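Hey, weird one. I pasted the DUF4397 domain-containing protein sequence into the form twice and got a warning about non-standard characters only the second time. First submission, copied straight from the form history:
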Amino acid sequence: MKKIFKRALVFLAAGFMLGACEKNAIPEVTEPVAEGAFVKFFFHVDGAPRTNFFLDSKKVTGVAPTTSGIVLGNLYGSAYPSNAYALLPAGNYKMSAVDTVAGKGTAETLASTSVSLASNKHYSAYLVGTTTSYEVFLAEDKLPPADYTKIWWRFMNTMANMPFAVDVYAVRAAIAATETKPAEPMEIIELGKNLGFKQHGSYVELKPGSYTFKVYPTGTAYDPATTKPYIQNAIVLGTLGRVYTTQIRGAYAETPKTSQIDYWRDR
């Protein structure tokens, strides 16, 4: 996971000035925003073209253009901004995910939805689905109060076409005794049950330690301590004061790829 900045990104032209004065240039947010909503954008459709998000007609995501000035978008598995939230004007908008066709002069809206962004609130916006059925949705990130003595974690399900909802656990490995500390047993922390597509759990406090995040089909028989999950990943947590989200993405397969589960720092 990339190093995370400690403050929200103040949004200026999606981080890059792409020549707004050129003929046929894509309109962008280019004015500094002193107050507004904090939004992070995720691109979770495997095989989707390079894509940008728009609020109404203004582009609000981006990557560095090519040396010839071709406008690029974000690829599957990426987030924008990768290390923070973008600060955008509050208000009511049509939020769209657009294939800008790498500057070839045409653009295609893959999906859109109406959103209402409130000042001083945090949101995650997602492009989800499949290459034949795209969706855009917005989730409010109800971040816990800042506390540099704790770690918080939640789970988000953005895996399309799943034939089941999921139960999710953070399993903290047992810690052997030392000369100065007693042994600590394995801990199993529930992050959410019966979470369907586009649903998420609440933030849950976790202790520092070595964790395996395990995802099981709801309604099946399992023991989080021993049963092989549908998908999992392992993480070592040590830094206090952090807030994270684990996500599953792409489209359902009986045997998922390891790249279909990931985590990002929210704060």
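That's the output from the first submission. The warning seems to come from a hidden character in my clipboard, not from the data itself. The chain has a mean pLDDT of 87.
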